[in-house]
Amino acid sequence: MSAEAISTVEKAKPASEPLFSKKNRKLINNPLDADNPITVQVLGVCSALAVTVKLIPTLYMCISVTLVVALSNLLISLMRKVIPSRIRIIVQLLVVASLVAVVDQMLQAYAYDVSKQLSVFVGLIITNCIVMGRLEAFALANKPWPSVLDGIGNGLGYSMILIIVAFFRELLGSGSLFGYKVLGENYLGNGVLMSPVGACIALGLLIWAQRARNGYTEEA
Amino acid sequence: MENLLNIFVRSIFIDNMIFAYFLGMCSYLAVSKKITTAIGLGMAVTFVLLMTVPLNWLAYNYIVKEGALTWLNNLGVSKEFADFSKVDLEVLKFIIFIAVVAAFVQLTEMAVEKLSPALYTALGIFLPLIAVNCSILGAALFLPGKEFTFGESAVYGLGSGLGWFLAVVALAAVREKLSYSDVPKPLRGLGITFITVGLMAFAFLSFSGFKLPFGN
Hints:
Strand content of chain B: under 5%
Distance between the termini of chain B: 12 Å
Radius of gyration of chain B: 20 Å
Oligomer: heterodimer
Strand order of the largest sheet of chain A: 1-2
Shape of chain B: globular
Largest interface: A-B, 49 and 52 residues
Number of strands of chain B: 0
Distance between the termini of chain A: 57 Å
Order of helices and strands of chain B: HHHHHHHHHH
Number of strands of chain A: 2
Largest sheet of chain B: none
């Protein structure tokens, strides 16, 4: 495409609301920190703890969750005017379950080892509270494009926390990163960090650090 | 019999839904502030697990699994018309499991509301939450990997539910006491709760070396 064509495309956009207006950018930025799905909204915690032993499966999980949140937000937002509110949970579950079935088949086809490591947690994206939470709180009341952005934003916020937790668990737990030994052959590894215990404590400390930085406190 | 007891003990203590697999964490963290609500949700989860795991076992073994539909041929559908012994619906297992769970939860909610208003006020508000509780779907998704009989799956459902119940009531008890302590401000609430859960999981790790006492 020539430079001229690009500039006309860019000019054509502001006719309505620009695709990445300030409001829309906020949809992506907010979930990364101040409104993070895991550390602030407390959603989707199960998989955050269970799949973060190694970085590679974690990355696959992050991509899958982000895809499912964004696409299910889009689909539900498109259907929001025709879903009767009494049965909306079942409709939402079916939409999400179909998307997850597609993601699971793709993982089995292209990344079989990872799909074995993730085991039931791919299927459990269906009941991942982030997906249902965003559908209920956002997609049912908003237009498709903001809904997609909201889905991507929340997916990225989730991914960010998972990757940080997985980084420390893999580095200190088995002395490697992405499967490569980085702490030397003599590093013995720390069994506690590999176990569920380490996941909880690592996430607790991460939440402490994040809240100490952004000043969010909870009434307790 | 020994086998059933083993599955029961194993699903409560060793493969505890919360401390070994972290299933159902969202509602676990949300309702564990007071013991009374924790008991209510714990009972609802136990009941739903006890009922849906065997239901999903039936769905898996008679609809989803490869060759599971052979009974259609035995009922008189001719093999020339369709050979069901080769049909494999594993792809659809997510959709079928979640549909069974959601439909069961919805039906239970309506039945409890009609039959027992007292129970409805105690459990009813938690029921819609349960359809999206990971532990229910998780237990169903573990079924293909474990070769249970129908009775074993019911015991497994009950045990998993009781394990969840135990975990949620224990955490609620700790958190009620914790509210009197002077926790650093940013650590309050979620942060300290995670660390508490971690320490409780530590205690439960000791069960993993536990030799099951029944039979071999």
